[in-house]
Amino acid sequence: MCLIVNGREVAVPEDPRVSLLDLLRERLDLTGTKKGCNQGACGACTVLVEGERIVSCLALAVQYDGRCITTIEGLAGNGELHPLQQAFIDHDGFQCGYCTPGQICSAVAMVGEVRRGVPSHVTSDLAAERVALDRDEVRERMSGNLCRCGAYNGIVDAIFDAFGDSPEEEAR
């Protein structure tokens, strides 16, 4: 049994009680993913499972046997930051930085949801073929990721800078 973490095959722990978060941080030394509340409420531990966001503190590693996991460390490529990572720097999308890895992973998945036409609670036209990505949509979709410093305006600005207002734009 194994899972693929940032393109690398990793053995699933023998103990079925090990959370995905603890596997990443304590056994694989991928400390970008943060342990915030450890109850699934803050989003600091958000990672991507085959492009979809999950809170890794509530997931058991064994549940993801054979699946591809991407952490904040896996978003950068060829020695360059992911466009959203750079946008967070450019727009002061963080202060203390603790929530930033989860915010970035969540935003990457959020754009995928918008591209697939998945509506949110604030989507005005549920029958539309395309979801308009506006500030209300971004704020609603990112509401599961908390920032105690209150860097929300910078986070939203960074998302628009990296992805534009069109979900069809390619974001890598």
UniProtKB/TrEMBL annotation:
Q: Which InterPro entries does the UniProt record give?
A: 2Fe-2S-bd, 2Fe-2S-bd_dom_sf, 2Fe-2S_ferredoxin-like_sf, 2Fe-2S_ferredoxin-type, 2Fe2S_fd_BS, Aldehyde_Oxdr_Iron-Sulfur, Beta-grasp_dom_sf
UniProt key word Iron: yes
Gene3D superfamilies in UniProt: 3.10.20.30, [2Fe-2S]-binding domain
Q: Which residues form a coiled coil?
A: none
Spell out the Pfam families in the cross-references: Fer2, Fer2_2
Q: Which residues form the 2Fe-2S ferredoxin-type domain?
A: 1-75
| Source taxon at top rank | Bacteria
Keywords assigned by UniProt, alphabetized:
2Fe-2S, Iron, Iron-sulfur, Metal-binding, Oxidoreductase
| Protein name from the UniProt record | (2Fe-2S)-binding protein
The organism named in the record is Rhodoplanes roseus
